[in-house]
Amino acid sequence: MQIKNDLLLRVIKGEEVERTPVWLMRQAGRILPEYRAVRASVSGFIELAQTPELAAEVTIQPVDLLGVDAAIIFSDILVVPEAMGLPYKMIEKKGPWFSETIGSAADLKRLQIADPDESLNYVLEAIRLTKKGLNGRVPLIGFAGAPWTIFAYMVEGSGSKTFSKARAMLYQNPELAHQLLDKITKTTIKYLKAQVVAGANLVQVFDSWAGILPPHQYREFSMEYIKRICEAITEVPVTVFAKGAYFALEDIKNLPCDVVGLDWNMDIRTVSAQMEGEKVLQGNLDPAALYASDEVLIRQTKEMLDQFKQDRHIANLGHGVYPDISPEKVKLFIQTVKEYSSSIS
Predict the structure, then answer these.
(1) Rounded to whole angstroms, how far apart are CA atoms 84 and 184?
(2) What is the reported pTM?
(3) Bridge-based pairing state of the strands 71-72 and 280-285
(4) Element (H, E) at 270
(5) Whole-angstrom Cα distance, residue 232 to residue 51?
(6) Considering 153, 191, 225, 246, which one is annotated as catalytic?
(7) What is the C-alpha to C-alpha distance for residues 253 and 311, in angstroms, rounded to an integer?
(8) Active site residue 26
(9) Pairing between β-strand 95-97 and β-strand 313-317 as defined by DSSP bridges
(10) Catalytic residue among 6, 19, 26, 218, which?
């Protein structure tokens, strides 16, 4: 199916575009009253994510209501450990919680390399339904968590400020850590390939906890596994978003990926100079800027676009949009990107 608004894909290919494409991480979520209405109809986040018709509905909502240039499938990075045999719950206002964790070789043996057509078919069906609902309007983004980030939750059992249990394993039992990361990586590759078959036009790898590791450990326990994913996914463009990994930009530049996501703490000019035009850059407005006055938000959005002017650029926030942000501020950000980038292109 030909995509009518293919700005995102054209930027990645290096083709001329009339303006900068824009979408937001966590755009399908709690900022929209329409999302909250769908969420209220089920028991919670997990049931919503596991009901393909509803997941497709909330995936499409931002395209209709916000005017973004891409949809991203409504799901969660932690569906991967669940598919491997480690189920989780999403506790309201606390986040994910695993009743069992991985701490030994015996624990690891209980995990499987998941078959996405069986254990993750609800995501794949949501992608198929979303593609049908979009009817070629915009590209659809699939995603997965980076192996290190998934590992952190599987060992820690929940979110954490320090992930001290997960980090302890890297020092105390690095062999076990690598074995677990290998299983996660193999599952993730199969999962992303299945998303592509189902209809994803590009995929993003989220390394949400990249910034908590020192550089030498990040290279050993994260970068090597992200590289394997990038090497395996050749069917569609791949974006790598490694939050807080400013120390690893040279390594990220050498990955066989197409797009590099920048968090809001990364200096645009520094990253641009390091990447030397070899990657498309995505980001990176501070999500908190959407709390600002309209005047400040417009000014900061324009300043961001000016700094990316020499690069192939996909406008986004430097992380997911916060749940209490006004949808009107999100619309203003998107509108500003569209109008200002048209004027300077």
Answers:
(1) 8
(2) 0.97
(3) unpaired
(4) helix 268-275
(5) 29
(6) 153
(7) 14
(8) yes
(9) unpaired
(10) 26
Q: How far is CA 302 from the centre of its chain?
A: 24
Active-site residue, selected from the candidate residues 10, 30, 128, 137:
30
Q: What are the structure tokens assigned to 192, written together?
A: 């992303």
Q: Is the peptide bond before 5 cis (omega within 30 degrees of 0)?
A: no
Distance CA 207, CA 51 (A): 26
CA distance to 31, 61, 205, 239, per residue, from 134 (Å): 21, 10, 23, 22
Is 153 part of the annotated catalytic residue set? yes
Measured in whole angstroms, how far is the alpha carbon of residue 68 from the centre of its chain?
A: 16
- Provide, rounded to the nearest whole percent, the portion of the chain with pLDDT above 70: 100
In the set 19, 39, 167, 312, the catalytic residue is: 39
Which residue in the list 6, 19, 69, 76 is annotated as catalytic?
76
CA distances to 65, 76, 271, 287 from 145, in Å: 27, 8, 23, 20
Q: What is the pLDDT of residues 121-167, one digit of tens each?
A: 999 999 999 999 999 999 999 999 999 999 999 999 999 999 999 99
251 is catalytic: no
> Roughly how many angstroms between the first and final C-alpha of the chain, as a whole number?
28
Joined tokens for residue 345:
């292109």
